[in-house]
Amino acid sequence: MSVPVRTEAVRQVPSEPATVRVRSAVGTAVVLWHGDPEEVGREQHVEWTVDEDIVWSENAWPASSAAPGLREDGDRIVFRGRLSLTGDGMALLDVGGAPILFELAVPPPPESSDAPWVEVRVARENVGLWPCRL
After folding, report:
1. Do residues 30 and 19 lie in contact, with contact meaning Cβ atoms separated by under 8 Å?
2. Could you give phi then psi for residue 125, rounded to 5 degrees?
3. Which of the residues 1, 31, 89, 93 has the least number of beta carbons within 10 Å of its own beta carbon?
4. Tens digits of residue pLDDT in 109-127
5. Does the structure show a pLDDT above 80 at 1?
6. CA distance 116 to 90
């Protein structure tokens, strides 16, 4: 399932991957764009990808707030949502209805982290948006 977001063009650097500002119901951030440049500038359904493992106590921990969130913190993107461990070395973070799949580093998060609110901080260059057709 994906949730609609609004994408906006940001100034591009020719030698770097395309980026967009994404505005969602839970926050805003600048991330990599994996779609057609012509699709930027409108509301659309997207899928999030994160190419960085969850390393408990290093880039993920219990959230101080029980509400979904998306924001930037320097060169990091911060997601806040409900974490579900899948049992196969993966975890699903639900950020306001947008599911984001993560691989888990060893050792995995404690079992008590299954379903509570957590915050995950990942490098901006590891976060991407893919437009999807429903």
Report:
1. yes
2. -70, -5
3. 1
4. 777 666 689 999 999 999 9
5. no
6. 16
In this structure, the number of other CB atoms found within 10 A of the CB of residue 73 comes to: 10
Q: Where are the beta strands (DSSP E) in the chain?
A: 4-9, 19-24, 27-33, 43-50, 60-62, 69-73, 76-85, 90-95, 98-103, 117-123, 127-131
Nearest of 31, 109, 112, 28 to residue 70 by alpha carbon: 28
- According to DSSP, the β-strands at 69-73 and 43-50 are unpaired
Beta strands of 10-68 (E only): which ranges? Answer: 19-24, 27-33, 43-50, 60-62
Entry field: residues in the chain: 134
Model pTM score: 0.92
pLDDT tens readout for residues 45-104: 999 999 999 999 999 999 999 999 999 999 999 999 999 988 888 999 999 999 999 999
Q: Determine the 3-state secondary structure of 30 from DSSP.
A: strand
- Measure the CA angle with vertex 115, ends 113 and 117; round to 5°: 75
Whether the Cβ atoms of residue 126 and residue 51 lie closer than 8 Å to each other: yes
How many angstroms separate the Cα of 80 from the Cα of each of 39, 121, 127?
A: 27, 9, 14
